[in-house]
Specification:
The complex is a heterodimer of chains A (113) and B (113). With 113 residues, chain A is mainly beta. Helices cover 0% and strands 57% of the residues of chain A. Chain A is built from no helices and eleven strands. The N and C termini of chain A lie far apart (36 Å). Chain B is mainly β and 113 residues long. Classes of the chains: A mainly beta (113), B mainly beta (113).
Chain lengths: 113, 113
């Protein structure tokens, strides 16, 4: 069974903390993505990676960075958490190629207080 | 850049009613088109897809046809069930190999008995 695993379902952090969200996939996928999901705004792409050590900014990269040192792991980093980063964060992965399906993790609900 | 526009929600229907959820897109080239579904408390999963003009994707009684002339990919189901209550997202991926996924805002469907 294919799997994308996010390290936490719920997380509460303080303003100004450095926050790491981890995502691991076991499908040998080249592409990995981080989205945030907010009511009325849908899914917005933060960053994606199409290979190890490769990354591209998505639509809302400000305040975030990413790391992909190994093919199966893609980390999202909030350098200095702020309350407007309170959200649901979704990780996904897919194979290279046209029309390939993306597989999603369960999401991490992050609250910044 | 690429964009996906979905009709405004939420949508509430009675069981066995006909469902249409509109989706239009803006993209360069020939994107692939998707519908993803998010059931309550779960992650996103692929419902159906189409990768070229006039293709019809179908799954679980849902259908959508890739209409290049109207840049649309409307989702339809002839008879909805209570178990179809979920959030539905239209999405597209680039024509290139890296398959960056762009989502619409999503629409919540509630089906009452």
């Amino acid at each position: 069974d294919v799997k994308v695993t996010q390290s936490s379902r719920y997380l509460v952090k303080r303003t100004g903390e450095k926050v790491f969200l981890e995502c691991v996939q076991d499908m040998d996928h080249e592409n990995m993505f981080w989205y945030r999901q907010d009511p009325g705004l849908g899914l917005r792409l933060i960053y994606f990676s199409y290979d190890v050590k490769m990354k591209e900014k998505g639509d809302i990269p400000e305040g975030y960075s990413v790391s992909r040192e190994k093919k199966e792991r893609f980390s999202l980093i909030l350098e200095s958490a702020s309350t407007n980063q309170t959200s649901m964060y979704l990780c996904a992965s897919s194979l290279h190629g046209r029309g390939t399906e993306a597989f999603f993790g369960q999401g991490t609900r992050l609250t910044v207080v | 850049g690429n964009s996906v526009t979905q009709m405004e929600g939420p949508v509430t229907l009675s069981e066995e009613a006909f469902l249409t959820i509109n989706c239009t897109y803006t993209a360069t080239g020939y994107p692939s088109l998707f519908w993803y579904v998010q059931y309550p408390g779960e992650g996103l999963q692929l419902l159906l897809k189409a990768t070229k003009a006039d293709d019809k994707g179908s799954n679980k009684g849902f259908e959508a046809t890739y209409r290049k002339e109207t840049t649309s990919f409307h989702l339809e189901k002839g008879s909805v069930q209570v178990s179809d209550s979920a959030v539905y997202f239209c999405a597209l991926s680039d024509a290139g190999a890296n398959s960056k996924l762009t989502f619409g805002k999503g629409i919540t469907l509630s089906v009452r008995p």
